[in-house]
TrEMBL record:
Residues 40-180 form the Methyltransferase small domain. This is Methyltransferase small domain-containing protein. InterPro entries: SAM-dependent_MTases_sf, Small_mtfrase_dom, tRNA_Adenine-N(6)_MTase. It comes from Falseniella ignava CCUG 37419. Signal peptide: none annotated. PANTHER family: TRNA1(VAL) (ADENINE(37)-N6)-METHYLTRANSFERASE. SUPFAM superfamilies: S-adenosyl-L-methionine-dependent methyltransferases.
Length: 253
């Protein structure tokens, strides 16, 4: 697609960012929460087959980064749900400029009210949710859109875990990126709603830093078969540049 066509799709304050070695173009805006390393790592962490009879749903879809990244390695239909209408419109334009509108459907709405049609449950759900509890730790961002993306203003851990259980098939997979300090809440809530944690991978900002992110794969009615802790992801070298592993993820997903 030509640069002139891409420019037509951009609104004031928006920019184009590139992923997958330039193959994936993403419209992002200074007025809304932009896609982060966490979303890129979650898409990489997910195990999604190539076949077209697999169904994936993305909670808290934002501008569509996770469905778009995953779409480059599967033929499966993907749906995303996002509560902010402006971000849904941006996600739809992102699907359009990447010629993925036939594969990905973005819906505007509250994930707590999302229902499956004709009992067609999903094989997997991904979720990059708000991390912070309102009234604790970090103050709410002055930009309401960013505040909703970072804090549990409209949806809590219990909300999206409970809803995932309503929408997933038996033995369906839930893929999560979150903060390590919320692991007690995550484990407690997942177990109460019949999920078992299958895999965990910690994210470290630098080699000598504590983890500031965690990737999780949980299975609905998966049984207690133990948790596999995978080697950590280190995002930056000591000098602040991306590690080779991180660059490889940005290039190839």
């Amino acid at each position: 697609m030509s640069n002139s066509t891409e420019s037509i799709l951009l609104n004031p304050g928006e920019r184009l960012d590139y992923f997958l070695g330039g193959a994936l173009k993403m419209i992002q805006s200074q007025d809304y929460f932009s896609s982060s390393v966490d979303a890129v790592l979650l898409a990489h962490f997910m195990t999604i087959p190539r076949r077209s009879d697999f169904r994936l749903l993305d909670f808290c879809s934002g501008n569509g980064i996770i469905p778009l990244l995953v779409s480059y390695r599967t033929q499966a239909p993907i749906e995303g749900i996002e509560i902010q209408a402006e971000l849904v419109a941006m996600a739809q334009r992102n699907a359009q400029i990447n010629q993925r509108e036939h594969q990905i459907t973005f819906r505007h709405g509250d994930l707590k009210e999302f229902t499956v049609e004709n009992h067609h449950r999903f094989d997997a759900i991904s979720c990059n949710p708000p991390y912070f509890v309102v009234g604790k730790t970090e103050a709410l961002h002055q930009n309401p859109s960013v505040a909703m993306a970072r804090h549990e203003v409209t949806v809590t851990v219990e909300d999206w875990v409970k809803q995932a259980g309503q929408l997933l098939k038996y033995k369906g997979r839930l893929y999560i990126v979150h903060r390590p300090e919320r692991l007690d809440d995550l484990f407690d809530t997942l177990l109460r709603y019949h999920f078992s944690v299958h895999r965990i991978q910690f994210i470290h900002p630098k080699p000598d830093r504590n983890a500031n992110g965690v990737l999780m794969e949980a299975i609905y009615h998966g049984g207690r078969n133990g948790v596999r802790v995978e080697p950590p992801v280190v995002v930056h070298q000591a000098n602040g540049e991306y590690t080779e592993a991180m660059l490889e993820i940005y290039r190839h997903g």
